[in-house]
Amino acid sequence: MMIRNRYMAQRCALLLFLAIALLPDALAAEAPKTAVPAAGKKNDWIAGWKETSSMQTGRTGAAIHAGDGIIHMIGGLSLVAGSAKTPSFTNTTEYARVRPDGALSPWRFGPRLNVERGYFSAIAHKNHLYVVGGGRGHNGKELLASVERAEIKADGTLGEWVLEKTTLNIPRRCVKLAVIGDYIYAFGGFGGILLDTVEQAEINPDGSLGEWFVATDPMLIARYVHGVETVGDGVYNIGGHSKEEGSGIAAVEWSKIDEDALFRPWSASSPLQTGRYALATAMHNGFIYAIGGLTGATRLSSIERARISGEGELSDWEYTSPTPFGLAGAEAAVLDDRIYLLGGSDGSGYLRNVFYATFNERGDIGYWATPAEAQKHRAAIASREMNKAPLPHEAVILQHFKRKLYSYLQVREDNNNVLWLAAPAQDLRQGERISFPNGTLMKNFHSKGLNRRFAYILFVTEVRRAVNK
């Protein structure tokens, strides 16, 4: 077993609660046609998303499977029934069917996993669905190596989950998966350290898995809360979390399997414009999409796309239509010519929301609408901006140290409580009054940017200027 990265992941709890691809010809043959407006209609292209039936359970760090007109959401981090504040890993699953207009039916619960788990992945091979790894317990500290399998029935629903006899060699939280041929592959994650290794197992004719083994060639860097997309016999690993910087990774790498089903040495591909982790990824019509995520303390609404331009090569990443709001830990799926975005966290909690859109001929995300619908969409956006909920805390800035990703703010609240905040970097002045949300309190935190250790510091996702009293 080969592991190159020996760094300890000191900020796993923070990361959890903040968060908490070379055959162009083959791809083109498989891709559905891009949506266009119906002939004779004066439709407007809206660079946005529609909302459809909400899930029964708000989830982040869940796993997704979509196929044959049905979407399954599996496990994840949710909230304990009757509590507004206590997060818990769940073993519940739920599914919805895609209607002809792209909207979803009401969600229904499916069979429960044997093990509560979050920050894991699911992938299908023929008529079986697999879930691998993850975490559970307080802050997800109990790392999982177990694997479960369910039959995908003819109607798209799932049979009962069974635990596989074979498990990963290394427990992996935030692992990502791929299936190529009759092998399943597990990339990166956290197993006590951030991992740059790849494990694989053969899928037997009855759907059970053979023994897992760790591949000889590691990835170029450790990957954690990253994205994976598969095209043909190759895989792209996209983004992830940098322990050293406490920020998102922009690097993208690629490899394909050889005649022995082992990955060849990995090579770098075009990097993202914005480093991001806890992102969702998707693929459609020759484009790969990197959706939302975190760049540090900031939840991103931006989406980038790159065209697969050759074996392992990507065009430069370009921005396309954003998500409705900053979103991390969500899941994305493409069915036919539509893309769905489900769950995740916007900083206020774990979301039940489901959004969907389609693609235009340029690969942008959005939907076609009548002029009246377009006007209604614009009005809804303006109203949402005007009616943003106020943030619960206010304070006056005593000190401000701005670095590349973070603003470190010493503030005094109205009750004279003095505390330190770490927020997305912005221009603020001493004496200004600000408001901020609840955050994640870190004890004995060392800032490399400041070369300073804080006994306590509160990480928050935003800071707004407030009216001086």
Task: Please describe what this structure looks like.
The protein has 3 helices and 38 strands. Strands 36-37-34-33-32-35-38 form a 7-stranded mixed beta sheet. Strands 1, 2, 28, 29, 30 and 31 form a 6-stranded antiparallel beta sheet that branches. β28 and β29 (338-342) form a beta hairpin. It folds into 2 domains: 12-383, Neuraminidase (6 Propeller), CATH 2.120.10.80; 393-465, Nucleic acid-binding proteins (OB fold (Dihydrolipoamide Acetyltransferase, E2P)), CATH 2.40.50.140. It is 6% helix and 39% strand. The radius of gyration is 22 Å and the shape is globular. The protein is mainly beta and 469 residues long. Mean pLDDT is 88; it is low at 1-34.
Domains counted in the coordinates: how many? Answer: 2
* CATH superfamily membership of the largest domain: Kelch-type beta propeller
User: The CATH topology of the largest domain is what?
Assistant: Neuraminidase
| Gross CATH architecture of the largest domain | 6 Propeller
Helix content: under 10%
Layout of helices and strands:
Blueprint lengths: L11 H7 L5 H7 L13 E3 L3 E3 L10 E5 L2 E10 L7 E11 L10 E2 L11 E5 L2 E5 L2 E2 L5 E2 L3 E5 L10 E2 L12 E5 L2 E5 L10 E5 L10 E2 L12 E5 L2 E5 L2 E2 L4 E2 L3 E5 L10 E3 L10 E5 L2 E5 L11 E8 L2 E2 L3 E3 L10 E5 L2 E5 L11 E6 L5 E5 L1 H16 L6 E10 L3 E8 L4 E7 L8 E4 L3 E8 L4 E8 L4 E2 L4
Parallel strand pairs: 34-37
Antiparallel strand pairs: 1-31, 2-30, 3-4, 4-5, 5-6, 7-8, 8-11, 9-10, 11-12, 13-14, 14-15, 15-16, 17-18, 18-21, 19-20, 21-22, 23-24, 24-25, 25-26, 25-27, 28-29, 29-30, 30-31, 32-33, 32-35, 33-34, 35-38, 36-37
